[in-house]
């Protein structure tokens, strides 16, 4: 299962893009999106999902 970004809550701060260990997060259109084919929920890299941990807006990076 992958994570997704709630576009209406995303502030486009870009913090998540640089924290993603698999490069699954990219800016597309007017917000950031997570490629579900690349998202591993940080398994094998971190104990917690980095996008959710770094995001300044709670519950913006959530399980898809």
Write down the secondary-structure element order. EHEEHE
Biggest sheet strand line-up: 1-4
Helical residues, percent:
10-25%
> Got a strand count?
4
State the major sheet.
2 strands, antiparallel
Uncertain runs are none
Total individual domains: 1
In DSSP terms, counting alpha (H) and pi (I) runs of 4 or more, how many helices? 2
Q: SS-based structural class? A: alpha+beta
Coarse morphology: globular
Radius of gyration, in Å, reads: 10 Å
CATH topology: Alpha-Beta Plaits
Keywords: 4Fe-4S, Electron transport, Iron, Iron-sulfur, Metal-binding, Nitrogen fixation, Transport
InterPro entries: 4Fe4S_Fe-S-bd, 4Fe4S_Fe_S_CS
Domain 4Fe-4S ferredoxin-type: 1-30
Cofactor: [4Fe-4S] cluster
Explain how this protein is built:
The chain is of the alpha+beta class. It has one domain (3-63): Alpha-Beta Plaits, CATH 3.30.70.20. 16% of the residues lie in helices and 22% in strands. The protein contains 2 helices and 4 strands, in the order E-H-E-E-H-E. The protein has helices spanning 15-19, 50-54, and strands at residues 3-5, 25-28, 31-34, 61-63. It has a two-stranded antiparallel sheet with strand order 1-4. The termini are close together. The model has no long low-confidence stretch (mean pLDDT 96).
Notable characteristics:
4 strands, two-stranded antiparallel ribbon, 64 residues, Alpha-Beta Plaits, alpha+beta
Fold blueprint:
Blueprint: E1 3-5, H1 15-19, E2 25-28, E3 31-34, H2 50-54, E4 61-63
Antiparallel strand pairs: 1-4, 2-3
């Amino acid at each position: 299962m992958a994570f997704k970004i709630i576009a209406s809550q995303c502030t486009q701060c870009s913090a998540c893009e640089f924290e993603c260990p698999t490069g699954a997060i990219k800016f597309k259109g007017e917000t950031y999106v997570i490629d579900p084919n690349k998202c591993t929920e940080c398994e094998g890299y971190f104990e917690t999902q980095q996008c959710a941990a770094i995001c300044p807006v709670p519950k913006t990076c959530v399980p898809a």
